[in-house]
Amino acid sequence: MKNSKKLYAWMSFGAALGVVAAFWQTLEKLTLIKNKDAVLQCNISKVFSCSNVLNSHQASVFGFPNSIMCLILFVIFLSVALVGLTGGAVSKKMRLSVQGLSLFTLGFALWFLYQSTYNIGAICIFCVACFTGLLIVNWAWLRLNVNDISKNVNTRKKLNNMIKTGADLFIWIVIALVVVGAILFQFYI
Predict the structure, then answer these.
(1) Ranges of the chain whose pLDDT falls below 50
(2) What total of structural domains would you count in the chain?
């Protein structure tokens, strides 16, 4: 139980990071909606240019700004994490459902970072912050749900062994490093 509180605390941190980044990104998108040529605070350089990213068609893939979807999802992740952190009961079905939602969101973030890197030609710092939050949230969900993910005893043993040895953390770090490496290679090498 004590370990689950730590995991819910990490999840709360990752989700809060995502909420702040997605909210700020939504404000920047609203600025661009009012004035497509507005200079945004998050335009740091030619590479780190929120304007280029937010003005792309990929930034509204479902017909509304992606940041609104991310904001809603991060609020869900934060709400569930806070329930667990404060000692509330989070049912198995809720935990697994929210983990599935967080995995979907991570897949979407990976797609969007790929689009930003290779098709848009710019990176939004808020997207990087959201991605970081998603890695933390997904890491915590895997650890919390490890015994409920599979009914297969061997799979559970392998997953528990990965967690015991820290291999799961290593995998999440490798994912982050691959994304950072791809961005660096594309823009700076």
Answers:
(1) none
(2) 1
Residue 151 pLDDT? 86
5, 38, 94, 111 from 83: Cα distances, Å: 10, 40, 11, 30
Describe the crossing of helices 92-114 and 167-188 by its angle, rounded to 10 degrees.
20
Cβ pair 122, 52 in contact under 8 A: yes
What is the chain's alpha carbon radius of gyration, rounded to the nearest angstrom? 18
Distance of alpha carbon 25 from alpha carbon 123, whole angstroms:
13
Q: What is the pLDDT of residue 18?
A: 98
Which pLDDT score is estimated for 2? 62
- For residue 156, the enclosing domain spans 2-188
CATH assignment of the domain containing 126 = 1.20.1440.130
How does DSSP assign 45-61, residue by residue? SSSB-HHHHHTSGGGGT
